[in-house]
Amino acid sequence: MKYPIKEWKTECLGTKPQVDKAEHLEEIYQNVVIRSNGQKRYFSTLMRVFSIFDRVLWGDLMIMFNPDDEDKFWNSQQDWNIVSWKLHGSSGVHTLVTEAGLVIHMLVEKKYPLRKKVLLQMLELKLESEEDSTMALELIRFVKKLLAELEPEDSDGIEKGLSVG
């Protein structure tokens, strides 16, 4: 599984003499992309960084708008330890953050193949919201309803999708 990009920054790797002025030193900068697992990748040009972000963004958008319960991403839920569940009411998006730094953005009105373990973790953490809202209450009620409907033998499999509507 690919780890999501956690940070992008520019680092100074050192100095070298300037071509026409040997007595002056020129700093050498490289763009660094850091994944949630700590892996770093260096790029000499900003255009190369943007080409990587385009592919990552496309993957994130596919997960957000076209969730597929056969996808490796959704099948890796047994490894998720949820540490935060937030609702961004103005955008209609709720976000899960895992202990490993994985950030999962989900549209409130979209169905996602979440497992019972993840749904339970969400409720245990309690939903953080910028403000009290009907959307937050509906989302919590829906998660509770999904858990109540699940059969005990379903707890290891992928459950019904999460949606509010």
SSE diagram, text form:
Blueprint lengths: L4 E13 L7 E11 L4 E4 L2 H20 L6 H4 L6 E7 L4 E6 L4 E5 L8 H10 L2 E2 L4 H16 L16
Overview of the molecule:
By secondary structure, this protein is α+β, with helices and mostly antiparallel strands. It has 2 domains: 60 residues, no CATH class; 87 residues, no CATH class. It contains 4 helices and 7 strands; from the N terminus they run βββααβββαβα. Helix 3 crosses helix 4. The longest helix is centred in the middle third of the chain and has 20 residues.
Secondary-structure element pattern, one letter each: EEEHHEEEHEH
- Major β-sheet annotation: 4 strands, mixed
Overall structural domain count: 2
Classify the secondary structure makeup into a structural class: alpha+beta
User: Which residues form runs of ≥5 with pLDDT under 50?
Assistant: 153-161
Q: Average pLDDT across residues? A: 78
Strand arrangement within the widest β-sheet reads: 6-5-4-7
Q: How many helix segments?
A: 4
Separation of the first and last Cα atoms: 31 Å
Helix content class: 25-40%
Strand content: 25-35%
Shape: elongated
**Total beta strand runs:** 7
Task: Indicate the radius of gyration in whole angstroms.
Answer: 21 Å
Keywords:
single chain, about 160 residues, alpha+beta, 2 domains, 4 helices, 7 strands, about 30% strand
